[in-house]
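Morning!

This is the sequence you dropped in the shared folder:
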Amino acid sequence: QEQLVESGGGLVQAGGSLRLSCAASGRSFSSYSMGWFRQAPGKEREFVAAITWSGGSTYYADSVKGRFAISKDNPKNTVYLQMNSLKPEDTAVYYCAAARSKVATVFIQLHVKYDLWGQGTQVTVSS
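The structure's back. C-alpha cells below.
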C-alpha cells in the first residue's frame, strides 16, 4: 500500500530552521510531482512548495520564497523541505502530498491535484 510519512516537525524559535522529510513507500509508488502544504488553525490548507520527480522543477508560494527550499532524493523516494528564517506565521501542520498524474504548472498549487497525502507534522515557531 502506498503511503507518505512526514517527519522533522517541532518547536523552534523565530529565525531558526527545520528540515521536514517525506518518505514515500509502496511497491507501486510513482508520481509526477510532490508538494508541501500547510494548514494553520482556523485557516484553509495552503500551498507551500512543489517539485517534479523528473527534471526537479521547483515551485514556491510567495510567502516562503527565499526562505524555504524543496529538494528530492529519487533513489530514496524522499522529498525534503528545508525551512530557514522561520516566522511565527509559519506555524501550522505541514502535509506532504503526491500527484500521480501530470499537473500543469498553473495548477501545481491546487491541493485537489494531489491524490495521496501524509498524516502531517506540526511545526511551531515561537516569537
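Headline: The chain has no helices and eleven strands.

More detail when I'm at my desk.
O.
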